[in-house]
Amino acid sequence: MNQNESEQKNRALKLLLLGVWVLYALLVFLNNRTPDDRSAANVQEDSAPVSEAVPETQPSDLTQPADTAQMPESETLPTVTQPLVPRDIYLSFDDGPCENTSRVLDILDSYNAKATFFTVGFFVDRYPDYAAEIVNRGNLIACHSYTHDVTKCYASADAFMNELVQWRQAVTNACGYLPDRVCVRFPGGSMSKYAADCSAEIKDRLFANGYRWFNWNAGDNDKWQKGNTENLPDEEYFMRSYRECMKWFDDDPETPVVFLFHDTEEGTVHILPAVLSDLVARGYRFKLLNTHPDWDVTDMSALTAP
Q1: ∠ Cα 305 135 70 (to 5°)
Q2: Residue 64: phi, psi to the nearest 5?
Q3: In CATH, what number is assigned to the domain containing residue 162?
Q4: Element containing residue 11 per DSSP (H, E)
Q5: For 176, what's the count of Cα atoms within 13 Å in the CB-facing half-sphere?
Q6: Is residue 174 a part of any domain in this protein?
Q7: What pTM, to 2 d.p., does this model score?
Q8: Of 1, 111, 281, 290, which alpha carbon lies 20 to 30 A from 178's?
């Protein structure tokens, strides 16, 4: 073998040894990687970073019913602080029962709230199932006359009391019984100009026969469009009225609130979830008017209702 052939073989041997060494070093490196390192190159990013992920919806004690209309965004209620003193509110709905009554009851149930329904006897006769539903779902049915015709109701004290008798019969037919305590609301309120000539005698006879009458000291103005001087949409106007009147009680937590709605008004049904949610946040407890302090009064002059 000549010298050139010997040099070529030596170079080939060196290259072979170098290749073997590189291969060995590569195998050692790969073997020493962690499982996470080894899988990282083959795993695609299949989820967003935590900081970018859509936040999970948190459960709430005040979950809005999904099938009820929400308050207009322009009328979003301010954040309120839970008060230290519990407050009582007596929700009342006038002029039913009607087709909206079941919807109102569903919304009340969603907030564990109860209300007093001042019903018109004529409509109790027309919609006995709705009247019975009021009672069967734990609410209070109350008297708002039989006809709601002020010319008939206030023709005399006798006429008013006869309306009450007719209402009692209608409720007995629809519900099977009368509440132990019958609450009365004068059509238009006990201070109505229509009742002026006979209201004093009506009140004397109601009190003497074990009844109590109740006006209201708050409401959403769903029957008083004259107050809507800015021509707002009904729901916005009703919500604004609610907020304004509730301010009256911010510094007077001891005064029970008797709140007037009409279940006959579609706009009231729509804002009711937002109102109830806000009342709960304000610390109000929902009461029925058969538990009102006026039932413990033995002297008519001490009643809260004028």
Answers
A1: 80
A2: -75, 140
A3: 3.20.20.370
A4: helix 3-31
A5: 6
A6: yes
A7: 0.74
A8: 111
Interatomic CA distance for residues 101 and 248, integer angstroms = 28
Give the range of the structural domain holding residue 133, as residue numbers without chain letter. 85-295
Amino acid found at 69: A
SS3 at position 305: coil
Within a domain: 276: yes
Query: pLDDT tens digits for 34-70?
Result: 444 433 333 333 332 222 222 322 322 323 233 333 3
Q: For residue 279, what is the enclosing H or E element?
A: helix 266-281
Structure tokens at 90: 């007596």
For the chain, the distance separating the N- and C-terminal CA atoms, rounded to the nearest angstrom, is 133
159 within 8 A of 152, measured Cβ to Cβ: yes
Over the stretch 131-183, which tens digit does the pLDDT of each residue have? 999 999 999 999 999 999 999 999 999 999 999 999 999 999 999 999 999 99
| The dihedral formed by the CA atoms of 274, 275, 281 and 282, expressed in degrees to the nearest 10 | 160
Q: DSSP labels for 48-116? A: --TTTSPPPPPP-TTPPPTTSPPPPGGGPPPP-PPPSS-EEEEEEEES---TTHHHHHHHHHHTT---E
Q: For residue 138, give both structure tokens.
A: 């734990």
Domain count, the chain: 1
Inside any domain, residue 272: yes
